[in-house]
Every structure is written in C-alpha cells, then in structure tokens.
Amino acid sequence: MKFGVVVFPGSNCDRDMQDSLQNDLNQEVIMLWHKEKDLSMFKTEDCIVLPGGFSYGDYLRCGAIARFSPLMQSVIEFAQQGGKVLGICNGFQVLCESHLLPGVLLRNANQQFICKNVYLKGVGSDKALKIPIAHGEGRYHADEATLNKLEANNQVIYRYCNENGDITAQANPNGAIRNIAGICNETRNVFGMMPHPERATSDALGNTDGRIVLKSLIINAKAVVTEKAALINI
C-alpha cells in the first residue's frame, strides 16, 4: 500500500511521519502539498495521513482553515469512497472540522500545552501502549448522544490509561471526555487520534509502541475489525 502525507503551511510532523513510515515500517510514502488536488495515484486500500502541527497557523480554530484547502476537498471525497484516512493531533482536529469525524478538540483542561509520554488502551494490544502527546487543544468533546453512538458502534479506538492499563481520571492528560484519545468513523476507514504514534516507531528512541498503532489501524486494517468486541468494555 501507499501513504500520502499531506503538508499544510504550519505542519511540523509531516517529516516525522514520512521517516516513520518509510524507514521504520518500510512503506511507500508520497508527500502531498496542500494546494494539490489530484489523488488519482491512490487506491482505496492506500492511506492519506494528516500530520500534526499548526496548519495555517491554527487561526480561527485548530484545523478550521485547513478544512477548506484544495487538497482536503479531495481527501474528503477519497474518504467518502472508502479510502483510508489517518489524522494525528492537528490532523485529528482537521478531520473533526471537516466532519469526517464527530466531535471537537478543545483547549486542554489545564489551559497549557502538554508534551510528554502517555499510555493508551485500545486497538492493537491488550497492554497499555506508551505514546507521546504534544498539544494544547487535545481535549476531545462531543454531546451525550454522539458519545453514546460512538460507544455503541465501538468507534472509540483509544483511551488514556495508566501504565497498568487502568482507565482513570488521573491518567487523562487533557480532560478529554470519557478519556477518549482516538476515534474512527462508522465505516472504520477514517481514524483520528491526538497522541503521536510516529514518534514511537524507532529503536533508536527506545520505544516502538507506535508501530503497533500504525500496523493495527492502517497497515493491517483487519485488526480494527477483529478487535471491535474487545473495545466494548473499555
């Protein structure tokens, strides 16, 4: 499969994602400038990645301007046709602004930018996964009806937990409702998460838990379906 990594003005994790996919996971990567529109080189089994950063300076709201970029119109169509789309951090914000995923990302509960390792529970492993976060607006929020629908459809793919895998308020770094760190759409081809798996795929960094995330969600997509039952009780 191929990966297309979108580059917006203000993206700063695009090369991290490229390096992770190419060098750590041996995947083909094509960098995509935000003014492009042509995604004809990608098939639905391929994946478009919206990386972290500060797209268009994060003016108005995080991801609000990127949602209207020329390339995002093509990404929306690609997703609607069944193509895989992964949004990380600012990319997650763009997906919510584009209505490819429900909900919003609000200012962290402590009103501060947070950059540290956290633990996640969800797709890919029965054990807690150590994945870095780096965001100021990562507090996932949605109304009660939307949250209940996400739960009923097993669309919550990751929750913040402690090192032992316990989902607690103390393990929640940003105040995200129900400890939600990542979700997917109903058809399970669009994924968004605040933590950065691409920053945890290199042996040189001493942590490769991010490989589990990327392989489970995208490269070996069947894992997302087979683990649906496991997410019900999280």
Automatic annotation (TrEMBL):
Its main location: cytoplasm. The active site is at 89 (nucleophile), 196, 198. Gene3D superfamilies: 3.40.50.880. One of its GO terms (cellular component) is cytoplasm. One of its GO terms (molecular function) is ATP binding. It is found in: Cytoplasm. It catalyses: N(2)-formyl-N(1)-(5-phospho-beta-D-ribosyl)glycinamide + L-glutamine + ATP + H2O = 2-formamido-N(1)-(5-O-phospho-beta-D-ribosyl)acetamidine + L-glutamate + ADP + phosphate + H(+); L-glutamine + H2O = L-glutamate + NH4(+). Keywords: ATP-binding, Cytoplasm, Glutamine amidotransferase, Hydrolase, Ligase, Nucleotide-binding, Purine biosynthesis. Its EC number is 6.3.5.3, 3.5.1.2. GO terms for biological process: 'de novo' IMP biosynthetic process. InterPro entries: Class_I_gatase-like, PRibForGlyAmidine_synth_PurQ. SMART domains: GATase_5 (SM01211). PROSITE patterns: GATASE_TYPE_1. Pfam families: GATase_5. It comes from the Bacteria. Pathway: Purine metabolism; IMP biosynthesis via de novo pathway; 5-amino-1-(5-phospho-D-ribosyl)imidazole from N(2)-formyl-N(1)-(5-phospho-D-ribosyl)glycinamide: step 1/2. Part of the FGAM synthase complex composed of 1 PurL, 1 PurQ and 2 PurS subunits. Part of the phosphoribosylformylglycinamidine synthase complex involved in the purines biosynthetic pathway. Catalyzes the ATP-dependent conversion of formylglycinamide ribonucleotide (FGAR) and glutamine to yield formylglycinamidine ribonucleotide (FGAM) and glutamate. The FGAM synthase complex is composed of three subunits. PurQ produces an ammonia molecule by converting glutamine to glutamate. PurL transfers the ammonia molecule to FGAR to form FGAM in an ATP-dependent manner. This is Phosphoribosylformylglycinamidine synthase subunit PurQ. It comes from Niastella caeni. The lineage of its organism: Bacteria, Pseudomonadati, Bacteroidota, Chitinophagia, Chitinophagales.
